[in-house]
Specification:
By secondary structure, this protein is α+β, with helices and mostly antiparallel strands. Strand 6 and strand 7 form a beta hairpin. The longest helix is centred in the N-terminal third of the chain and has 26 residues. It is elongated, with a radius of gyration of 38 Å. About 40% of the residues lie in helices and about 20% in strands. The termini are far apart. It folds into two domains: about 100 residues; about 240 residues, BirA Bifunctional Protein, domain 2 (2-Layer Sandwich). The structure holds 3,4-dihydroxyphenylalanine.
Length: about 350
Amino acid sequence: MCALDYLCLMDQLIKELNQYKSEIAAEKVTDKITLEAFRIKYLGTKGLVKSSMALMKTVDADKKREAGQLLNEFKVFVETFFENLKTTFDTDNNNQQKGLDTTLPGYILPKGGRHPIGLVQDDILEIFGRLGFAVAEGPEIEDDWHNFTALNLPDDHPARDMQDTFYINKNPDWLLRTHTSSVQIREMEKGILPLRIVCPGRVYRNETISARAHCFFNQVEGLYIDEKVSFADLKQTLYFFVKEMFGDDVKVRFRPSYFPFTEPSAEMDISCLICKGKGCNVCKKTGWVEILGCGMVHPNVLANCNIDAEKYSGFAFGLGVERITMLKYGVKDLRLFSENDIRFLQQFKSAL
Ligand code: DAH
């Protein structure tokens, strides 16, 4: 006969100890105080490990060896468990070992900055905002109608080749917009006049990447539709923009040009700010840099958006944000804007 019936059966003991083990594993030890409570409960002089060991006295002699092994293994389990918890919570001790001084002030995390393209885009929108232009945006994945057809570029129009287009396999009618002129169509279609908007956004063209060209870049499209809008209004608006953006010293010139969506059309150049007009690589030694295309909205475009071309007229322009940024900050390679080199970006850090 043994003193404790259940201890006569080794598997009973195993079961009991396993039960304790899962209780221990489920203990919620979250800080040093609960860690100490854990130690007292399991490893203290009146703790579970000690009282389990005491049971040895009551075990039959022939079972002592086996029971001793089980109890010892249980003791090691609890001690290891405790030690692991201790290293987690004993951070002061850890820090001292690593030579850390926790009383020192923390690291100052470096502040992020705005991307130069975003900064210049905001400047552009702000300047036109002062003239009453509201901001309008549209989708980067466009349909043929808004990107081409409604802008007076029907299917067979040769000018479609001017912009190498990325089409979307899923649907031949879908493409990545090649310009933000698509947004002027979306806005005119709403039928609310007069309309005075600037449309910022990313555009895509299938071009070989170089210092002067990229397969994606940013544009701001402008549009003003009202009764009696004239080319003089267009010129005055753009003069104002250039002076506000680059200062009074910059020179401006308009050249006749061609765009299917405007008639007449023009391109606007400003004197090269990099070489001050003397001639450099950016201005191709001409002293002038083109910054935008513009013109009077073509009557066909107005008609495509159900606007009465007899009553209303308007001007539009489209400018490249990268080009403006390059001139403003003297950046000579377009690729820098999309490489995310921190040494480049840090130079534009704005006060946030
Ligand atoms: N959409 C033209 C382009 O991406 C730029 C442009 C030219 C926009 C003339 C206009 C415009 O609104 O009138 O090359």
